[in-house]
Write a structure and sequence with these properties.
Shape: extended
Number of helices: 4
Strand order of the largest sheet: 1-3-2
Strand content: 15-25%
Distance between the termini: 87 Å
Order of helices and strands: HEHHHEEEEE
CATH architecture of the domain at 14-115: Alpha-Beta Complex
Number of strands: 6
Radius of gyration: 24 Å
Helix content: 40-55%
Structural class: alpha+beta
CATH class of the domain at 14-115: Alpha Beta
Length: about 150
C-alpha cells in the first residue's frame, strides 16, 4: 500500500523530475502563467509556493536556497524583488490551476498554472490606421509618400 507516499513520479527519474519542475516554476516566474498538463501543474504548485515563501522571508540564506532550487540568478532576483512582495499579506495559496481541456495531439488534460495576484496588463499604444492610401496620424490625414515605379 502507498500510505503517506505523496510524490508524484510523472514517469521520470528523481533528477529528471526535479529539473523539469525547476524549469516549469522558472517559466512561471518569468512569464507569470504557464500552460501545461494537470499532473505537472499539481506537482509544480508546491515547489512554486515554497519558493514564494522563501522570497517573503528574504534573507541571504533564503536567496541561496532559491538559487539552489531554480539554478538561475535572474529568476531568483525577479522572485524576491517583484513576485514575493505581492504576497506579503497572504498566508499561502499563491498559485491557481485553471483546467483548460484536452490537448489536441494526445488528449492529455491541460491546465493553466498562474499566480493569484497578477499585475494588470498595460494598455497598448494606438496604432496608425490606413485609409485607402492615406495614413491617419493623430486625426490628421497625410498622403503616403510612395515612390512611383520607374518606366523602362
Amino acid at each position: 500500500m502507498r500510505h503517506l507516499r505523496r510524490t508524484v513520479k510523472l514517469g521520470r527519474t528523481s533528477q529528471h523530475r526535479d529539473s523539469m519542475l525547476a524549469n516549469l516554476v522558472g517559466s512561471l516566474i518569468r512569464h507569470e502563467r504557464v500552460r501545461t498538463t494537470v499532473a505537472r501543474a499539481k506537482a509544480a504548485r508546491p515547489v512554486a509556493e515554497k519558493l514564494v515563501t522563501l522570497g517573503k522571508k528574504g534573507s541571504l540564506h533564503h536567496r541561496r536556497m532559491a538559487i539552489a532550487a531554480l539554478h538561475e540568478n535572474d529568476l531568483v532576483h525577479k522572485l524576491f524583488a517583484e513576485i514575493a512582495p505581492r504576497f506579503k499579506n497572504r498566508a499561502g495559496g499563491y498559485t491557481r490551476i485553471l483546467k483548460l481541456g484536452p490537448r489536441i495531439g494526445d488528449g492529455a488534460p491541460t491546465a493553466l498554472l498562474e499566480w493569484v495576484e497578477r499585475p494588470a496588463p498595460e494598455p497598448e499604444a494606438p496604432q496608425e490606421e490606413k485609409v485607402k492610401g492615406k495614413a491617419v496620424k493623430d486625426g490628421k490625414e497625410t498622403k503616403d509618400k510612395a515612390k512611383p515605379a520607374k518606366k523602362k
